[in-house]
Each structure stands twice: as structure tokens, then as C-alpha cells.
Amino acid sequence: MKDIREELLRCARCGKCRSVCPTFLVTRDETKVARGRVTLLEAIVQGKAVPTRYAREILMSCYRCMRCVDACPSGVRMDRVIQHAREMIAKEMGINRLARFMFRRVLPRRRLYDRFVRAARLMQRVLPKSSSQPLRHLPLLYRGRRYVPRIARRSALQALPELLKGRGNEGRGNMKVSVFAGCLLNYVYPEIAASLMRVLQLHGVDIIFPKSQLCCGAPVLAYGDVEAARTIARRNVECLEADKVDAIVFGCASCSLTMKNDYPVLLPEAKVLAEKAYDISEFVDKFLGYSNLPLNQVVTYHDPCHLRWGQGVAEPPRKIARQSGRYIEMENAGACCGLGGSFSLTHYDVSCTLGEAKAEAIRATGAEVVATACPGCILQLQDQLARKGMSTRVMHVVQLYERSYLEGRVHPLPAESAAISEIAHVE
Length: 427
Ligand code: SF4
Ligand code: SF4
Fold this sequence. Notes:
- There is one protein chain.
- The protein is α/β, with parallel strands linked by helices.
- The chain has four domains: 2-93, Orthogonal Bundle (Fumarate Reductase Iron-sulfur Protein, Chain B, domain 2), CATH 1.10.1060.10; 106-149, no CATH class; 156-288, Rossmann fold (3-Layer(aba) Sandwich); 298-405, Rossmann fold.
- 52% of the residues lie in helices and 9% in strands.
- Strand 10, helix 21 and strand 11 form a beta-alpha-beta unit.
- Helix 14 packs across helix 17 (305-311).
- The longest helix is centred in the C-terminal third of the chain and has 18 residues, at 348-365.
- It is globular and about 65 Å long.
- Bound molecules: iron/sulfur cluster (2 copies).
- The site of one iron/sulfur cluster has 14 residues, from helix 3.
């Protein structure tokens, strides 16, 4: 509590966060900006206000995009302020039963979680398809507009090998890494996990893909269920064995941010893991180098908030995009795409206003491919492009890198790698 009071006191009420906060830029509501949220939480902490449903809505509506953290001249760590607020609200007002059940009973059990997702996949089959993107849309919820990607027939953890030897002779090689997938790469985009592993393998890196890894816990923390998040974090720390590998490599910006920022707060033993955590683009840039040739395609790049503002990683994924095609920087590439986790479901209109601006920025570049580094952003961009009838292809930077690496090069894939590539074509 003392720490959080100190954090709140840092705020000089200068209002600089108003120029960057996505929820404020759309709503123009002072309660929906860092300054307003700090003021509210300060009143609650001092006992001058009590947590109400309205207060909860204000504190839960923060995207945790960390743009204000980057912009704040007083160094207010809004991510910590919001995390504290959510834990306090969870304690005082409780967490809804379904969320609690998922966080405590389902997410920590890999097989049970798999069964839930399989059931969701079957239900998804009845949803209507989009004409411009490989998506289906939710006809009853979210006013019939939200497009969702298909859940894969086999998850990355089911389809990909647990151990993979590095084969290529490019880059430094002789490294051993653990790969962490996270829920979206595992269940929705296993082909991205496959590309990530293949890029590592082609650069001579030995890979462990622990089958008992769980969700990173970010949604659990977002609801303030700190005990459930700690249980999940402990299991991930154990299975990723940070002390036995050179690095933990991620393809999801939110998962890597959670492990770098939140795990050491939840568990002191997670410090080693946090120090060895790398986004795949950071890992390529720092340890492997670039061995690809540019494709004859116009490419642009969108910054995931959790990578650029949360981890300060802006240049490595751009380098991949620049090296992989005819690169054009879009206007305001660092602006939020509007996903913001479950906020985009409960506040789809705000999410769409941000998403539409992003789609127009992409359109203005004339790009055939928009690359990004987070599966959450991919999901949002696919939705927003489909709503506008745009057929711009959305890719993860590691897929783009892999394609440009392999195209035009006589480079027989090792047997295991060929097996991995099959999953890219599985529905
Ligand atoms: S920029 Fe920082 S100091 Fe200024 S109002 Fe926002 S949170 Fe407070
Ligand atoms: S983290 Fe993002 S959404 Fe939350 S207050 Fe800061 S800028 Fe606004």
C-alpha cells in the first residue's frame, strides 16, 4: 500500500497523458485517462471514496497499453497503479463466478482447458463466414459485428514436437531455448508458433517446447485474481526451466510483458526467467542476425503496445519487416489497434474507433502485408480489415521472416521442419 501511495503522489496532474491515452482520445472523458484514474484511486486509497460499479468500470477500462508510462514526465507507473486497483477491486467487490472458475479450475489444467477450447471450436462452426478474411463473425453478440478467427483443429502444443534440434548453420547457433506459446498462438494461430520454431531451428538453435506450459496469466491478473495468477506463474516458471536454457522466446508481446514485468513481482524465483525472456524479433536481432532476402511485396508494420511501450522493443521487428519486403512505415504505427483484451469485447465501439483509424493508416500505405508481433493485434487487425472489406494480409513478423528466408532459396527443410510446416495448413 505504501508503494502505491508513493506512485500516486508522483502524479503532477500535468495532463500530458491526455495526448496519448487511447481511451481518452476516443471518449474525451477525463475519467478515462491516467490522470483521472490516478485521482479516483487516490480518493479510494485515502478513504474519501468507495469502490462502486462505476469506479470499477473506470479502473477496468484502462488498456494497460503503457503509452502513458512512456509519456509521463513524472514517471508514474500506470501499469502498477492499475494492477493494484484491480486487485483491490477484486478483493472488495469479488470476481464473477465464471471468470473465477476459469482462472482457478480450468487455466491451471492443460487438458481441461483443451477440452473447453475444443467445445468452443465445435460451436464456432455454426457462425457465418466473412467474405474478405478467413474469419467468422458473431451474429448475436457484439451487435453482430465482431469477427473472430477460427480455432485451430490441433493446438500448437498438440501438433509441434517437444524437442527440436537446430539444423541450420546460419547465425550463432549452439544455443538452447525454451519456447512459450501463450493461448492465442497455441489455440488460434499454431502456424505462427510453427514459424517461430522453424526460424530458430534454421538458425541452428536447439528448442524445448514444454508441453505442460499454461496460459501466461495476463487475463487472470487483469481481473485482479492475484492468487490464481501466482499459481499459474509458478507452474510456468517450473516447466520453462530458465536456468537450463539460454533464453525463453516468445511470439506474443502480452505474454513476454507479463513474464518480464509481472512474474518477478508475483514470485521472487521468476527473476531468472524474466532476465532471459525475449520477443522473437529481439532474439533474432541480438543473437541470430538476418539471413533473409526481401520479398517483392509492399510491407508495413504495426507496433503492439505491449512490445513498443511496455518493453521498449520497436526497432527489431521493424528491421525484420524492412529486410523482408518493400517497407513503408504507416502513420502513427505506435497507436493502439484497439484490442485491449476483454475491453474490446465489452466496449466494442471504442475498440472499433481505434481499429478503424489503424485500418485507414494501413490502407494509406498501399501495403499488401501488414506485419505485427502480437497475436492479439493480429486478431484485431483481421477483424477491422474485414469490417472494411480490405484484403490486406495480416502476418506475424516471424512468419514474414520465415517466408522471405525460404523463398527463392534452395534450402531443403529438415524432416522435423517439414512436419512442422504441415500445421501451417491445418484449419
Ligand atoms: S502525464 Fe503523468 S504526471 Fe502528468 S497527469 Fe498523466 S500520470 Fe499524472
Ligand atoms: S495504460 Fe493506456 S489506457 Fe491506461 S491510462 Fe495509460 S495510456 Fe490510458
